[in-house]
Amino acid sequence: MAETLSTATSYTEDDFYCPVCQEVFKTPVRTAACQHVFCRKCFLTAMRESGIHCPLCRGNVTRRERACPERALDIENVMRKFSGSCRCCAKQIKFYRMRHHYKSCKKYQDEYGVSSIIPNFQISQDSVGNSSTGHPTFKCPLCQEANFTRQRLLDHCNNSHLFQIVPVTCPICVSLPWGDPSQITRNFVSHLNQRHQFDYGEFVNLQLDEETQYQTAVEESYQVNF
Questions:
Q1: Closest residue by Cα to residue 38 from 51, 21, 61
Q2: What is the domain extent for residue 41?
């Protein structure tokens, strides 16, 4: 039987979630100076966009780390040993298998809207526009009011629709390269607060698909002089 976290360990379930993608770690890596942990792909993508700063605290990251971050093997080992609750169905799953579980968990798909599997199709932009500053704007799917930035949409829904639970499509998710316009979000306000507290564009080049970004990071790592 899988072990669960308890007072026997200093870890909590939050310690296994990446602060960039908000998902359970996939190949966790750790910064040397500030000791923050991220998914390897999230960290490399952030380094490509921000240059020399930790994505969480803006602390300095060495050139060597930017190309070849140190794996957080202690975190990996704990993830293989301990189980935690699925954030939606409460089923006990070993942390290193949690992402795989999310792909088949219907409650997770209903709550968070975006599948862990990145689909390959063209995305509808009906609910997405651009402000005069070039930032994307969105239409609220609950009241159809338009021209909200991500933060303004978040504030608007928390103020006006906090207890309104209606199945809708998330316009922010639709605007992303991996967004699925057919994916329905059961609790839109909860979804916004869980998935859209930050702008993905700060960490990800949205003009490139995930595989291209990963390959670019790998290629750039070979050009770094240690």
A1: 21
A2: 14-80
For residue 188, which amino acid is it? F
pLDDT at 74 over 70: yes
Residues 141, 221 share a domain: yes
Assess whether 37 and 66 both reside in one domain: yes
How far is 67 from 216, CA to CA, in rounded Å? 11
In contact, 95 and 16? CB cutoff 8 Å: yes
Terminus-to-terminus CA distance in the chain, angstroms?
A: 45
- 42/44 Cα distance (integer angstroms): 6
The DSSP line for 101-123 is HHTT-HHHHHHH-S-SS---S--
Residues 70 and 95 in one domain: no
Write out the two tokens for 213: 């970004």
Residue-level pLDDT at 131: 52
Residue among 140, 143, 145, 146 at smallest CA distance from 192: 140
- In sequence order, the 6+-apart residues with CB closer than 8 A to the CB of 159 are none
**Cβ partners under 8 Å of residue 8, min gap 6:** none
| Per-residue pLDDT reduced to its tens digit, 149-163 | 999 999 999 999 988
